[in-house]
Amino acid sequence: MTRSDQGAAVVLGAAVSASAAVGLVIAAWSVVGPDHLLFPALVSCLWFGAAAFVGPGLATVLPQRWSIVSCAEVRWHRRLGVGRFDRVLEVVGWNRVVRAMRGGPDRPGRSGLRDLQRHVQAAMAGHGAGAAVHVVVALACLLVGATVSSGLTAAAGAVLHGWPVLLQRSTLARIQRISPARPAGDRASP
């Protein structure tokens, strides 16, 4: 299998995963109903799991410029508490799980930066898709008058996908800062 065939297979896998997850959200809407308190939990569980399958394929088709993090954005990450969110994930052990999923050491050398960047971009893309789905579902719930489900879906999307996207972008900024492949003027500063 050539490299382009592998890339096409990853994108196809992401499309199938995303379609299945959207289909399950629609099924949950039909079976449980948007006004049931179980509905936001189903949406959140489905898309938290789907993010891992959707992300790698989606990351291959997103423009590379979406992975460039400006210094101003890094300052916003600090204001929004992304560092605190990362520390919470470290305390509860989630970061250890993520490192194991990536198959890499806790602190990769320069040779592992490209691999780490690829994993971070995939996580960012997957969580971005999950955040977008949560926004769409929250708006749909709002339109049909299921305000509690709308609020819960939006809140879950912010915690499960919004902050993780910011955390991945913060990690990309650190990679940019130490990566020898980027010109000095393009690196984000702390």
Helix and strand arrangement:
Elements: H1 3-31, H2 38-61, H3 71-79, H4 82-92, H5 94-102, H6 113-143, H7 147-178
Helix pairs in contact: 1-2, 2-6, 2-7, 4-7, 6-7
Largest sheet, described in full? none
Number of strand elements = 0
Structural class: mainly alpha
Shape: globular
Helix content: over 70%
- The fraction of residues assigned to DSSP E strands is under 5%
- What is the mean pLDDT? 84
Helix count equals: 7
Short description:
This protein is mainly α.
Describe this entry's structure for a reader:
The chain has 190 residues and is mainly α. Helix content is 76%, strand content 0%. It is built from seven helices and no strands. Helix 2 (38-61) packs parallel to helix 7 (147-178). It is globular. The termini are far apart. Mean pLDDT is 84; it is low at 182-187.
